[in-house]
Specification:
Blueprint lengths: L2 H13 L3 E5 L1 H13 L4 E5 L16 E5 L7 H13 L4 E7 L6 H6 L3 E8 L2 E9 H4 L23
Parallel strand pairs: 1-2, 1-3, 3-4
Antiparallel strand pairs: 4-6, 5-6
Helix pairs in contact: 1-2
């Protein structure tokens, strides 16, 4: 198993998904390996060009693996792919992208991703970016009902 496959396999192990959407040969291969060990897992294999018609996912996915996909798409199509995965409520997304593809850390940060690892696969240099809906928006002390209004003024004044 290559370094990139091992990094993705570790992520799959941590996630323990029941549903996986896989894009690209590496992602699909790893999803199939997981399914071989966990027969109750459901896999949806999609091609990058499926984004032009809109993703047709049967349900909310626990994990989406995107490999060898963004290199085949132009930037707006790639952003659409990632945006659709997030909008469908995919809990975790892992994107493996070639450093020569033109995608940058800023692109992924703007989409809510974190850089997970820099990897090498032979002579290719790759970066693994991840998105986890559970840790995407950290809790802020001011972002709760206690600070939204002046509850002590409720029913005392009308505007």
């Amino acid at each position: 198993m290559t370094e990139t496959e091992q990094a993705l396999a570790n992520l799959i192990d941590r996630c323990e998904p029941q549903t996986i959407a896989a894009f690209g040969e590496t992602g699909q291969g790893l999803a199939e390996r997981w399914k071989a060990q966990h027969s109750d897992c459901q896999i949806t294999c999609l091609a990058p060009e499926d984004t032009t018609e809109g993703l047709n996912l049967p349900q909310t996915q626990d994990l989406a693996l995107v490999t060898e996909a963004l290199e085949q798409l132009d930037r707006p199509q790639g952003q659409t792919l990632i945006g659709q995965l997030r909008n469908y409520g995919t809990r975790q997304i892992a994107v493996l992208v070639d450093n020569q593809s033109g995608w940058t850390l800023s692109d992924f940060i703007g989409l809510g991703f974190k850089r997970q690892a820099r990897l090498e696969d032979g002579d290719r240099k790759l970066t693994l970016y991840t998105y986890n809906i559970d840790s995407y928006n950290h809790k802020r002390t001011w972002n709760n009902p206690k600070y939204w209004a002046n509850p002590e003024m409720w029913d005392k004044a009308r505007w």
